[in-house]
Write a structure and sequence with these properties.
By secondary structure, the protein is mainly beta. 12% of the residues lie in helices and 32% in strands. It has a 6-stranded parallel sheet. A 5-stranded antiparallel sheet has the order 3-37-32-40-27, with no helix packed on it. A 5-stranded antiparallel sheet has the order 18-19-20-25-22.
């Protein structure tokens, strides 16, 4: 039986449940704002004066996410994002997003107009001057201009730019979605379509020429979006890649990090211009680029914060696939103390309740010092993604390169986004981490995606929901080896699919999968996972101290498994840094986290090795309910030494192993949501 107790940790982005009652029964934990499905910078201006349905004015930084694909495990990834945009037809995922975070601004996006196939009357399609249809993006393009013929179809006599908004409004569940982010590619026709000069929007048999066709299609898009807004009054309706500022609820545009400096500067100017409109025109920017674009990420985040925008940074090969999460997303620096200030040409700062940002898009390196702030001092936070930049030092001065930025905090703080190790680099494996290491023979499961930790992608690239192994003798192992930058107590979670399909065939799912946690060659935990239950969620293995570097790993194997074994994702969440590092945001080094976790208990047993008795001792900083259990190396329970409420202070319990065989034994101490384990060796 799993004991569950919903509680809020000190993390802004983490809801957690109580830990399991036995090694064979693992509890659910809901992963919060960790962290992201393209290398996208998603900027979105504040909605605070539009709708009061949800939290339109969250604190900073404001994190957003878009995906054009099956969200899969996305709701768990985006659990505490401030803004999420997904396709209107992923209703179950949308409900899960709202279930996990009711305050999230959730927007529906449509399919691109080129993906609608061949289901409409021919006059509604966009034609060339010779009468042939314009094709693009896997479909045939629709004529959204004011010159589109009126056709009697579904809702009566209409042009396509009146029909499609009505269809979209009918098919979008606005009891779940807060609005629509309308997606289409009517921008820069010369980039996407051949023979563009011969596009004939008004069907007069003469090509319009690229510039006129572009203008007519963009005007048509504005008409279409305004028609949609009239159908859903009180809802936000944003237009993706809509030029100018004519739209009632927004304007979107995107750029790639390998584009010119002028392109990046254009986006910065658009952010500023839209804020200067009095926040009446929310704006969405996308920045897609290499996963290692650290400076572009920092520039995008800090630029967004200058002008009250939302931000996200995704994998950037053109298709909005999956996200990477950054330490900065764990920050909580409140609200602005005033507007952004340009302290010298193209160098900006802005100060907040509990921090500040610096942004530069100057074309030469720029030096910024503490004297440029009005409300310091500030600190660099201690992070794991870019430790040379985010080193925890008191901020004095920094030299920023072209298009770069930095987020500062008011007090010494560690910000560490959860580390995820998946079976492939795509979808979920965290920045600067490597996928799981496969020992032996594992197979990729590409048929069944049910509950696998992935986001389904297209455009020539597929994620691997999970890998699997038949039962065996331990010859097949999956090793999850995180790179730990900040040592401390980490809670570790395992994720497995709910599917019983392996290679498209139904097989028995293993109910006792061996799992172990090792740090510096020292086993911290061994147990078994029942993979026939608790699929499609994070399952906590416990809280363990992990060393800095690459000396830690989680192992899943097929040893003695009476069924097929799945290896999917494992997550490592820092709960408390070592004492030499700054505390996590909102948690002082001297206080309990969430008032129910008891640190520095100094758990040990002596003597060790022992024969036949040993004393297990620990210290409680406050009264707590504790369970102290002994397990053998197979995970079987040998003895329960105590189960009940204990007073604060030093506790000692003696275990007599006279009746037990020589070997390795594990002493497990559970207190509220935390687990401690150590190893004892009985030698007779």
């Amino acid at each position: 039986m799993i004991s569950q107790d919903f509680g809020r940790s000190s993390f802004k982005r983490f809801n957690s449940l109580i830990l399991p009652d036995s090694l064979n029964c693992l509890s659910l934990s809901k992963f919060s704002k960790p962290h992201f499905v393209i290398k996208l910078i998603l900027f979105f201006l504040s909605f605070s004066n539009l709708i009061s349905v949800t939290n339109w004015n969250p604190s900073f930084p404001r994190v957003g996410q878009m995906t054009f694909y099956d969200p899969g495990a996305g709701p768990f990834l985006w659990q505490n994002h401030d803004l999420v945009i997904i396709r209107f037809y992923w209703g179950d995922a949308a409900k899960k997003v709202k279930e996990l975070n009711p305050d999230c601004i959730l927007l529906a996006t449509n399919n691109d107009l080129g993906d609608l196939g061949n289901e409409f009357p021919d006059p509604w399609y966009l034609h060339y001057s010779d009468g042939s249809r314009v094709s693009g993006f896997g479909g045939q393009m629709l004529n959204i201009t004011e010159y589109c013929p009126v056709v009697n179809h579904t809702y009566g006599n209409q042009q396509f730019n009146a029909f499609y908004p009505q269809r979209l409004a009918d098919r979008t569940d606005y009891t779940v979605f807060d609005g629509t982010f309308f997606d289409t590619w009517w921008a820069g026709l010369g980039t996407w379509f051949p023979n563009v000069d011969n596009i004939d929007c008004d069907n007069n048999g003469v090509g319009d020429g690229m510039n006129l066709a572009d203008a007519r299609l963009n005007k048509g898009k504005s008409i279409l979006i305004n028609n949609l807004r009239n159908l859903v009054p009180g809802r936000v309706v944003l237009g993706h890649e809509s030029p100018g500022d004519s739209l009632l609820n927004g304007n979107g545009f995107e750029f790639w990090t390998n584009n010119s400096d002028a392109s990046l500067r254009y986006n910065f100017d658009q952010l500023q211009a839209n804020q200067d409109l009095g926040k009446s025109l929310p704006t969405v920017n996308f920045c897609e680029g290499s996963r290692t674009s650290g400076s572009i990420f920092r520039w995008g985040l800090t630029a967004a914060m200058l002008f009250d925008a939302y931000h996200g940074f995704d994998e950037g090969t053109f298709a909005h696939r999956w996200s990477y999460f950054y330490d900065e997303y764990e920050a909580e620096i409140g609200y602005p103390k005033g507007p952004a200030r340009e302290i010298k040409p193209d160098v900006w700062v802005r100060e907040f309740d509990a921090g500040a940002v610096i942004t530069t898009h100057a074309l030469t390196p720029q030096v910024v010092s503490a004297s440029n702030f009005q409300n310091g001092p500030y600190y660099r936070f201690r992070g794991s993604n870019f430790p040379l930049i985010n080193n925890g030092a008191l901020f004095d001065t920094i030299t920023l390169g072209v298009f770069d930025g930095i987020l500062l905090v008011k007090n010494p703080t560690s910000l560490v986004t959860p580390v995820i190790i998946d079976n492939v680099p795509q979808n979920a494996t965290s920045l600067d981490q490597v996928p799981l290491e496969k020992v032996g023979i594992w197979s990729d499961e590409l048929v069944s995606t049910d509950g696998g930790f992935h986001i389904k992608v297209e455009w020539g690239e597929n994620a691997v929901p999970f890998i699997y192994s038949p039962p065996g003798n331990g010859e097949n192992k999956a090793l999850y080896k995180p790179k730990i930058e900040i040592p401390g107590d980490y809670e570790i979670f395992e994720w497995h699919s709910v599917s019983d399909l392996f290679g498209g065939k139904t097989q028995t799912v293993a109910t006792a999968v061996p799992v172990s946690v090792v740090s510096e060659n020292f086993p911290l935990f061994t147990g078994k996972i029942d993979q026939s239950i608790n699929g499609g969620q994070w399952n906590s293995l416990g809280i363990f101290h992990l060393a800095k570097g690459l000396m830690n790993y989680v192992e899943i194997s097929n040893l003695g498994a009476l069924g097929y074994v799945k290896a999917d994702a494992v997550q490592f969440v820092l709960r408390k840094p070592d004492a030499s590092y700054p505390p996590l945001a909102g948690v002082s080094q001297s206080q309990d986290m969430n008032a129910i976790i008891h640190y520095d208990i100094a758990l040990k047993n002596s003597p060790n090795p022992f024969n036949p008795q040993t004393v297990i001792s620990f210290t409680l900083t406050s009264p707590a309910r504790v369970v102290l259990t002994v397990f053998d190396q197979l995970g079987s329970k040998v003895s329960e030494l105590v189960s009940g409420q204990e007073l604060s202070g030093r506790q000692q319990f003696r275990w007599d192993a006279s009746a037990e065989a020589s070997g390795i034994y594990f002493f497990e101490l559970r207190m509220d949501r935390q687990i401690y384990r150590l190893v004892g060796v009985l030698i007779k």
